[in-house]
Amino acid sequence: MTEAWTGGCQCGAVRFRVSSLGRASLCHCRMCQKAFGGVGGLLVTVHDLVWTRGAPSHFHSSDQVKRGFCRDCGTPLTFETANGVDIAIAAFDQAGDIRPVIQLDRVSRLPWFDDLHRLPEPTPEETAGKARWYASIVSRQHPDHDPEQWEPPS
Question: How far is CA 131 from the centre of its chain?
């Protein structure tokens, strides 16, 4: 694995580093669905969190939880309680290396969640057409690493 885990928001205004990871989970609760705008929240417990650029803004989603996000681009970043901090898995530069080990609040799962793997995929022709379109896009997203200096393209 990795010695230091790094990540941040989509625009690069907020960046972090952690020394180690705890349990990774997929939470299906309604609050996580709304906070992530998706099927739930993919989160991992972190240790020794340091904000290396900027800091998140917060929304108190309950009397027990505050959620951190980038005030510039809206990326969901943290789930914070008195017991510690979890960070959104997809916010990590190495997101593909962090595998959830448990699903939480399964009773709140969206009813079609278990069928997602059955959705059709694009044909090779459709994929080729989209690849040309994607290649034409100028991304303003922060890269998945910390370059010495980075400014989004104008």
Answer: 24
